[in-house]
TrEMBL record:
Keyword flag Magnesium: yes
Complex formation: Homooctamer.
Entry binding sites for 5-aminolevulinate 1: 210, 222
Alphabetic keyword roster: Heme biosynthesis, Lyase, Magnesium, Metal-binding, Porphyrin biosynthesis, Zinc
Annotated SMART domains: ALAD
Catalytic site positions: 200, 254
Family recorded in the similarity comment: Belongs to the ALAD family.
Official protein name in the record: Delta-aminolevulinic acid dehydratase
CDD domains for the chain: ALAD_PBGS
UniProt: 5-aminolevulinate 2 binding residues: 280, 319
Molecular functions (GO terms): porphobilinogen synthase activity; zinc ion binding
């Protein structure tokens, strides 16, 4: 007897009935770039994405919620940058301002604060720099790990004080989750979860983000602390396991598309929620191809995000979030 799997693909209703994976706006986290200026500033390398004022960030959060997207993540772009990234943990820092404003005006939205220093340092790295003995050229400088932990912890507490619902450390410093968890608990924020960028690669896919945030390193490179793209599963598991042991509440894989195998690995190994970051370069590739007429934007985006859900993502940070939410609403009639 010939087995005919195509029988269940014959009509839209049959295909819908037998789907194992689905997308919903509730799966999305909408990223917002916030700067200290009043005007919206479009980002050339990320068509459809802009830097927003604090009030513009509020309107972005309000729009996301109206589309069924419950969460936003804030990335700050300060006017002043320095070697220690002091605006990251300033009481009046731009992310702190935006978090307060969103929670005051759209309290139903979950505000996630990206907790890093790269957008705030004048050298573009994720903490204060130190020299690497015996190295020259791009490898001669790296981030000084332990002093960075103190600054990341201060940043996390400052963000929680401003109203952030979730702290998302992305610096890939050894021990950062433990330092942040301890600082939050000591400050009375035992209820604030830590969404760790547990498995974050030194990826070429971050280019448009660095253009948006002005965070491209001026010296050295991030390969001395972010993971090697050619690293294997053992390294990914070790990084994730350390964060779990230190108190992470969720784990993230960044970028998502080139590392779906790693996303699936974390889903199978750990019982924490797993987040996929559909990063700026992945977004820009689809946008550019669509603008050139090479690909169907809607179908490509939906297929891409579905692949992340199929690999095990419970939530997806994506610059496509509001577009996809609109498309899904249209499909429902």
């Amino acid at each position: 007897m010939l087995v005919r799997p195509r029988r269940l693909r014959r009509t839209p209703a049959l295909r819908a009935m037998t789907r194992e994976v689905h997308l919903s706006p509730e799966h999305f986290i909408h990223p917002i770039f916030v700067h200290e200026r009043e005007a919206e500033h479009p980002i050339a390398t990320m068509p459809g994405v802009s830097r927003h004022s604090v009030q513009g960030a509020v309107e972005q959060a309000r729009m996301a919620l109206s589309l069924g997207i419950p969460s936003v993540i804030l990335f700050g772009i300060p006017d002043h940058k320095d070697a220690l990234g002091t605006q990251a943990y300033a009481e009046g820092g731009v992310v702190q301002q935006a978090a307060r404003a969103i929670k005051a005006q759209v309290p139903q939205v979950t505000v996630i604060a990206d907790t890093c220093l790269c957008e705030y340092t004048d050298h573009g790295h994720c903490g204060p720099l130190c020299e690497v003995p015996g190295q020259t050229g791009a490898d001669a400088w790296t981030v000084d790990n332990d002093p960075s932990l103190e600054l990341l912890a201060r940043t996390a507490v400052s963000q929680a004080q401003a109203g952030a619902d979730v702290i998302a450390p992305s610096a890939m410093m050894d021990g950062m989750v433990a330092a942040i968890r301890s600082a939050l608990d000591e400050a009375g924020y035992t209820h604030i979860p830590v969404m760790s960028y547990a498995v974050k690669y030194a990826s070429a896919y971050y280019g448009p983000f660095r253009d948006a945030a002005g965070s491209a390193p001026s010296v050295g490179h991030r390969g001395t602390y972010q993971m090697d793209p050619a690293g294997g599963h053992r390294e990914a598991l070790r990084e994730a396991r350390l964060d779990v042991e230190q108190g992470a509440d969720t784990l993230m894989v960044k970028p998502a598309l080139a590392y779906l195998d790693v996303l699936k690995l974390l889903r199978d190994e750990f019982d924490l929620p797993v987040v996929a970051y559909n990063v700026s370069g992945e977004y820009a590739l689809i946008k550019a191809a669509a603008q050139l007429g090479f690909m169907d934007e809607r179908r490509t985006v939906l297929e891409t995000l579905t692949s992340m859900r199929r690999a095990g993502a419970d939530a997806i940070i994506t610059y496509h979030a509001m577009d996809v939410a609109r498309w899904l609403r249209e499909a429902q009639g």
